Amino acid sequence: YTYGPPMAVAPINMVRRVVEYALTEIPREKISLGIPNYGYDWPLPYERGTTVAQTVSNLEAVRLAIDHGAEIQFDEVAMSPYFHYWQYGVEHEVWFEDVRSYKAKFDLIKEYGLTGAGYWQLMQFFRSNWLLLDDMFEIERI
Fold first, then answer.
1. Which residues of the chain register pLDDT less than 50?
2. Residue 69, domain CATH
3. What distance in Å separates the CA atoms of residue 50 and residue 27, rounded to the nearest whole number?
């Protein structure tokens, strides 16, 4: 989160742990997975209680990487993209969502038979997400 240390917004290994715990307390037909639709840009070094990350859209994150010539990496444990860049003598670390990270979350919904998904920050348009969602699920608009 904005005041936390640099890391994936919703690392799949941690999301899985939350889902597994939730299933011990809540019937699966009542569980929807929260899906983040944003990323964070942290100035480094991170200092607890002082450093504040800026929220960025997934597209803004990719534009930042392109603008600064940064190579986007992919964390296979968190199943999330990230990169580093420098601006005005300050190093930054950015974590965000892409189709690979969304697919991992969507696969989790299917694996555990959850009801579906709900989005955080729906107003940040990210077309790839919607195309993947439409391909993997039957979408009900309510």
1. none
2. 3.10.50.10
3. 40
